[in-house]
Write a structure and sequence with these properties.
The chain contains four helices and no strands. By secondary structure, the chain is mainly α.
């Protein structure tokens, strides 16, 4: 008997994460922005971070970051593995988010 693991929640969370990262990247003019912990100081140092849109995206990033960690934990995936899988899955996703 094969056990089927439902990773729908994780895939959806990653789509949201990539979307928010894309919006942050667009705001700061960095198309390579992937929302990793090394990327966030770049965002925080950017003048756009202090704008209403920047604050909105920072809050959204924190929310989807937590959502991704939560959904990944249900699958036994820890940090930073979930982040790598999130960006790997981009090529396998049928969605155009991000």
């Amino acid at each position: 008997m094969q056990i089927v693991i439902d990773d729908t929640g994780f895939i959806t969370a990653c789509e949201y994460f990539r979307q928010i990262c894309g919006e942050i990247g667009e705001l700061i003019g960095n198309s390579e922005f992937k929302g990793g912990y090394d990327d966030m100081p770049i965002f925080y140092a950017h003048e756009s971070y202090k704008t209403d849109k920047g604050v909105q995206l920072a809050i959204a990033w924190a929310g989807v970051n937590d959502l991704c960690k939560y959904e990944a934990s249900k699958l036994g995936i820890g940090s930073p593995d979930w982040w790598y899988r999130c960006w790997e899955d981009k090529s396998n996703s049928s969605s155009n988010g991000g």
